[in-house]
Amino acid sequence: MIGDNHDGVRLTRRRFLQVVAGTAGALVVGIRLADATDAPVPPALLGDTLYGLGPFVRIDTDGNVIIGARDPDTGTGTTTSLPRIIADELDADWTRVSVVPLGLGVEDDNGKPRWTYGHQTSGLGNSIPAAWGDLREVGALARWLLLQAAARRLGVPADRLRCEAGNVIAPDGRRFSYGSLAEAASKVTPPTSPVPLKTPDRYTLIGHPAGTVDARAVVTGEAIYTLDSYAGDMLTAVLSHCPWPDGSLDHLDTTDTLAVTGVVKVVQLKPEAGQPPGHTVRSPAVAVLADSTWAALQGRAKLKLQWKPGSQSESSAWFEQQAADLVNNKDAAPTTRVRNDGDVDAASKKAAHRVDATYVQPWLAHATSEPMNCVVHIDKDSATLVVPTQSPQDAWHVVQRLTGLSPAQIQISVPRVGGGYGRRFDHDYVAEAVMLAKAAEKPVKLMWTREEDMSQDFYRSACVHKLNATLDGKRQIVSWNQRMASASAFAHRGVPDNRLWTSEVDAHQLPAGLVPNLRSDWYSLPSAMPRGLARGMPHVSNAFAVESFVDEIAHSLKEDPLVTRLRLLGVPRQIPLEEGQTLDTGRLINVLKLVADRIEWKNWLRTVNGLGIACWYVDGAYVAHAVEASLQGDRLNIERAVCAVDVGRVVNPKGLEGQVAGATLDALSTALNLSVTYKDSQVQQRNWKDYPLASMAQLPDTTEVILVPSELEPTGASFLAMPTAAPALANAVFRVSAVRVRRLPLMKELLRML
Amino acid sequence: MAQVQDPILTPHPTNAIVPEKVREGIDLEINGRTYRHTGDAQMPLLWYLRDILRLTGTKYSGEHGEGGHDLVLVDGKLASATHVAVADVAGKPITTVEGLAAADGKLHPLQQAFVDEDAIGCGYCTPGWLMASLDLLNRHSQPSDNEIDQLPNLCRCGCQTRVRLAIKRVASAGSHA
């Protein structure tokens, strides 16, 4: 198997496995990231409380197994998939497994934080690859210890025993439950050499479908999100933010607010100078603190306040015009030449055929269901927080700076999170909550209203792509020139100037490696609009432009766009890309053909409905979409959406199917309806009606998901199905309406052009 | 040794006993239980459920309840808990997502269908989908796709197609009481 590592536990200097005896004879196993010399056992782990459980397995004498899930679950399914990776190596009985979300793992390393659980982020598509690298070892070690304990009890060598669903089975068929072996196993000396990992033919959970582990809690309303958390004697805070990021407070009268029953205090918040975006308050704000949410909201409504604009007066229309001007100005030097293969200028001069198009994509918001919020309790020597975050380690830095506490004095728990999509890598709301808890000298729950959430986001920049391609007489693309202009999400965030493009365009993106002369230029546009990470960046915007453009090339050649794509991909082969990546055109061809077959692409020319197709490569994973659309008057119906993904080995097929279906619908919804606009540096969207996620009627009735079976190392998938859905839709819309949508949102453009 | 009587057992003179006043308030019937709200009568039901009863399955996602995260049944009809004040629902039977499962913990067929179809993304909008779907099934035991299309809920995780499957699963099983 390529790239897979089944030769044994990989113990490095920075990481070692740890075995401890828990209470009541429990066996507890974890990994520690540490300098091996001192590795105290977290006392909480040894007690009856589960708080502080590591990326650990705990096997109790009654046979119950508790597995910690280290990555926040924003709907990506990591609280199901990561524990199953451990449970499979352990040969645990999944029906006896409980999963506990771990919260932040941090220890004091001479005043510096030491992250005890290693990887702890959500939504970057790397939870499973990281877990594949280290969490399997935890399960394997626990199983090895149980086998040793059983071998001693039976007086037979361990290699004559086998494990199955929470039992060790002796050669004579006798079964010993893990629970009955846990105490003895906790006293076995851990191995000095690596213990073997399972071979894939023995997987019982990996590759088998499992539903969301806390589904029951979700459907009964018992799942507790941060906004559902209450600290004793807590105040609830709601905010009124300045609509201008660089504005200031002009006038404030709190008389009526303070007269509202239950309102306790009004506090002003300001961004701290010198802090990067997402580390401090985003915009000046006035907070109303009250003994209930309702009182706080009433108090906020009664604030008499006036904001003063800052020096910025930008509009989204101006921004888009600047971007278009840049990519259309042949003399403008790019900020970064991201890629330059062959000689585009020389090749394009000899061309038999030339295609040009420009694509405009709008500003976007995150629009998480659960608005920004945070619960903070600060004491003299401790801070306890509940944070809906995608990166608890980043949140810790904000809390530490604002409280001055030492690493282990800060506890951050992360319950199930109501959507992330990149928004929760910025912790402006955590900074606000900590400041308010300090000012109030009481526990505080901060809740952003939807209006604040919509208008105080870290947005995705609008962008303009100008694409030119030239083809030779044999319909081969000989040159490809991409010019893209946008405002980097990484600006002012400590990323060096020569790397700002990395949030906007991928150096490996299609058709890199497939066209001999290929250039990708990025033009940086300044903008005062706060920006941040967005789901599927930079792939989503680029795939829309590139995969629409391939369709336009096919149309200009008067041929089937699947044929054009297959010619571009050529024979199945491995194309090395920089940074250790390899594009396997065979895998890309495979996903394309799978969706084409499923949607009956052979009818492409004949069907009255429009068929559209698109494919993309994302960091080792492959995706294709085929969409069927119909048009009745000005009503667009997405009849079918088919998606095939090849992510290497699939850990949880049901979970992956959900991610793929979900990302497909998210991408369609975004492309159909959504844009953020601003005038005078003020965002104009305030509520769901201004930022209308697609209704059920707009979306397809089903999402057909095809998972490619594979033995290859697993890759991430949380946003994999985002990039190709929108271009496949736009290509289908072109077939059914003859309108080539080169500007999003699609519905607005389609209705304008029809 | 002389017994010293515990002062707590000393009977009060009867004229010192003042019965506590019955607290005036709004009687609410939520998931089959009765509550008396003695605070602000204009408090939206949403905040009464969440902040006071700690029935947090009904979610906040916006001032206007547009996303359908705050849906409950009042008198059997779908209602936005943001839009009804406690005073408006006095005495009317209210069902929240916490009231769907049977007393013995057995899930409602619709809840079970959501679990079986894994119709869950981040799960924050799920209670709202459940309440709206339940209302739909109450009105149409075999809803058409067009009727399902009318559900008011929003979801960015993209659980819509799986919700549709869950509703159809219940409809085809005829298991919706």
TrEMBL record, chain A:
Gene3D superfamilies with a match to the protein in the record: Aldehyde oxidase/xanthine dehydrogenase, a/b hammerhead, Aldehyde oxidase/xanthine dehydrogenase, molybdopterin binding domain
Domain Aldehyde oxidase/xanthine dehydrogenase a/b hammerhead residues, every copy: 220-311
Domain of life: Bacteria
Entry's transmembrane regions: none
InterPro entries in the record: Ald_Oxase/Xan_DH_a/b (IPR000674), Ald_Oxase/Xan_DH_a/b_sf (IPR036856), AldOxase/xan_DH_MoCoBD1 (IPR008274), AldOxase/xan_DH_MoCoBD2 (IPR046867), AldOxase/xan_DH_Mopterin-bd_sf (IPR037165), N-heterocyclic_Hydroxylase (IPR052516), OxRdtase_Mopterin-bd_su_IorB (IPR012368), TAT_signal (IPR006311)
UniProt protein name: Molybdopterin cofactor-binding domain-containing protein
UniProt organism field: Dyella halodurans
Automatic annotation (TrEMBL), chain B:
Keywords: 2Fe-2S, Iron, Iron-sulfur, Metal-binding
Keyword Iron-sulfur assigned: yes
Signal peptide: none
InterPro entries with a match to the protein in the record: 2Fe-2S-bd, 2Fe-2S-bd_dom_sf, 2Fe-2S_ferredoxin-like_sf, Beta-grasp_dom_sf, Diverse_Oxidoreductases
Keyword Metal-binding appears in the UniProt entry: yes
Domain [2Fe-2S]-binding: 96-168
Pfam families, per database record: Fer2_2 (PF01799)
Protein's recorded name: (2Fe-2S)-binding protein
